[in-house]
User: Which sequence fits this backbone?
């Protein structure tokens, strides 16, 4: 692992177009070799887009492998490049939607999601404002230490273990109205989840976003990270109106609907290799 980190440290010295060209080559190799991940991705696309042809699904997953390789190689930039380079690479649009709410004394939950540019864009945002984030420990100790250090490299982040209670998060939010960066778009099991349509198939969808906003009396602001050529854009949307509404199922469905629209803008950039439909309603067969 130390050798891998050393390679990433060196790769980050290259211009981003060169890094992405290298990622394209690695993506072509990874697509045939990572059979299980490829299988999961193709199942996800079949469940989400039943009208898409098998050839179209294979093409999309192949492009996604390239995007994932870009993410892997960009970690060197995320962990070691200067703030000046991050500011040059990542444009933030709509930051005023966050700063205005903080100035008004509002607590904020940032509705984030698993697009391949999420790491570099989150770090770029952390240059402008403090952030609270959940952290899951990695199995490899060296990699775990690097992830933790990298996400707090500007001493402007509150890293909370995923096992901590909601109370710990709210306490951190109340300090200087620090926004909580929340990614609620993966299958974490049936607990605290509802089966809500994600495109064409019901998925176990955690209800944490409306529940957290309700308990913390916080505003929900969607933010989306995208690659645009050899640069990145973090788009901050206006706060969701009447959210939470008091109808947990309707709010969770609204969350998925917003995410679906953003995915369709750049489908190859969304995390398709996660087992999004792993948890099934009682009596239903497993997909994977």
Assistant:
């Amino acid at each position: 692992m130390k050798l891998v980190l050393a390679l990433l440290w060196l790769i980050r010295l290259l211009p981003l177009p060169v890094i992405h060209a290298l990622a394209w080559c690695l993506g072509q190799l990874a697509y045939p070799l990572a059979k299980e991940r490829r299988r999961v991705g193709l199942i996800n696309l079949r469940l989400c887009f039943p009208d898409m042809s098998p050839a179209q699904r294979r093409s999309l997953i192949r492009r996604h492998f390239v995007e994932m390789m870009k993410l892997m190689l960009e970690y060197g930039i995320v962990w070691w490049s200067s703030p000046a380079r991050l500011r040059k690479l990542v444009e933030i649009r709509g930051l005023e939607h966050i700063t205005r709410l903080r100035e008004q004394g509002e607590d904020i939950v940032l509705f984030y999601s698993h697009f391949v540019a999420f790491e570099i864009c989150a770090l770029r945002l952390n240059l402008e404002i403090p952030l609270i984030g959940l952290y899951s420990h990695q199995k490899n100790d060296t990699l775990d230490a690097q992830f933790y250090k990298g996400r707090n490299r500007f001493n402007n982040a509150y890293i909370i273990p995923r096992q901590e209670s909601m109370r710990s998060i709210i306490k951190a939010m109340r300090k200087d109205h620090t926004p909580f960066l929340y990614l609620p778009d993966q299958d974490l099991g049936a607990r605290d989840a509802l089966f809500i349509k994600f495109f064409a198939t019901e998925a176990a969808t955690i209800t944490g976003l409306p529940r957290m906003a309700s308990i913390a009396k916080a505003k929900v602001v969607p933010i989306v990270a995208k690659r645009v050529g050899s640069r990145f854009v973090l788009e901050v949307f206006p706060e969701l109106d009447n959210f939470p509404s008091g109808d947990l199922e309707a709010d969770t469905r609204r969350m998925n609907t917003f995410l679906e629209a953003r995915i369709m803008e750049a489908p190859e950039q969304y995390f398709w290799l996660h087992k999004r439909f792993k948890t099934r309603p009682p009596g239903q067969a497993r997909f994977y």
The chain has a mean pLDDT of 94. The CA atoms of residues 195 and 203 lie 5 Å apart. Residues 85-269 form one domain. Strands lie at 90-93, 108-111, 131-135, 157-161, 180-182, 193-198, 201-206, 219-228, 231-236.
